[in-house]
Design brief:
Layout lengths: L4 E5 L9 H12 L4 E5 L14 E4 L18 E4 L20 E3 L4 E4 L12 E3 L6 E3 L8 E6 L8 E6 L15 E3 L12 H15 L1 H4 L5 E6 L17 E2 L3 E3 L9 E6 L10 E6 L6 H6 L3 E8 L3 E14 L7 E6 L7 E6 L8 E6 L13 E8 L7 E14 L3 H21 L1
Parallel strand pairs: 1-2, 1-3, 3-4, 4-11
Antiparallel strand pairs: 5-8, 6-7, 6-9, 9-10, 10-11, 12-13, 12-23, 14-17, 15-16, 16-23, 17-22, 18-21, 18-23, 19-20, 19-22
Length: 426
Amino acid sequence: QAVTVLFIGNNATPNAGADANVMVHLQARYGVANVFYKQASAANNTTDLLGIDVVVASSTPGSGDIRGKYQNSAVGVVNWEEAVMDSAAGEFGLSTVVMTKSTTTTHLNIDLDHPITAGLSGQIHFAHSGETLNTTGLAGGTFSLASAANGTGAGNAALFAVDSGGAVGVDSPAEGRRVMVPITDNTFNALTSQGRQLVMQSVDWAANTEALGFVAPKTLAQWTFPDLTAAETGSGYAPTTTAANIVAGNVDGTNSLITLVIENPSPAYPTQPVLRIFPTDGNTNIASAVSGDKYFEFTVAPIADHVMDLTGIMFDAARGGGSTPRGWGLASSLDDFATLLDTQAIGTARPNFTTYLVELRDNPLFQNLAEELTFRMYVFSPGNGSTIEFDNITVLGHVNAVPEPATAALGLMGLAMLGLRRRRNA
């Protein structure tokens, strides 16, 4: 079942703060066709919410462009603009006091076993850096999901929510679910995988995805390159995450045609180390990269008696410097790498990653796969020293057990009987 999301940001396109990164993560989870963007100054609460299951409001707009528009909405709202959430004229009113900002809070304590915190417990690493929020007072009916474990305001509620019908400060009771996420404009760029998990599960809960029958795609395999190494093979290139019933191989280069290194470059990215790619001899477009075999690759496969449905490939990429063009193209072994699934020039340079999504959920070729699948990432840049840098390469989708033959036969028999009954009725 599709979930439709309205994302509210400051600019005409989602390019303020970390909004572009948030937008891609929403699209990866719910589908590109189901995520809509609106500039806050143009938002209209009477027409925006038609067919929408959840509103996600960034802190990049001024609070005046959000205030007064969604506080009476029966549609759930996930928000990280504290000025519309705290007692400083905040009509959502989940916090009874002005919220505290911290640049030293990197860890959270999980306070409540809840769908938003599912899969997480104890103390988690929430963000590598950036500004976070917390509060010393919650409105009646509002509950803390996670509190600051360190930094300014340690012990205070950081991630908190209220269910529909619960009390809030100004307009009570809340007509829809509300969640306050403890980040500000750019913090999402520096969130750990656990931090992003909390944000996305907040959106799930606010949208009431369980009632909608929505099942979020899982991370089937992910490579985060945690170990520094100048070698092109080894533990740093192994997947850092694999889902149950999935196997995945190491990221692998093409020997002398490109060089792979896991390093901490300077200036530093919010997440380090990263994978640095040095294409040799300069290839300034995707055609020359493909013809010159300038690629690295990675594999993913279901275990026996399972199949996988892929929804997308997501990753972070940036130029190592200012010279252009530098970019990438992705192909797969399904057609012996004959077709590029997507190719783009990279628009940002270190230390600012761009998050990319190659969506596969509507491509029938990538559904019901029982065999190993290899992806090749072709890269191009002006010369030997012109690096391209990657992180958080992620294969998203679902993995399912193949029905036992007897079960499948019963299902087919049931369909046959249903067809016979319909013919008789006709």
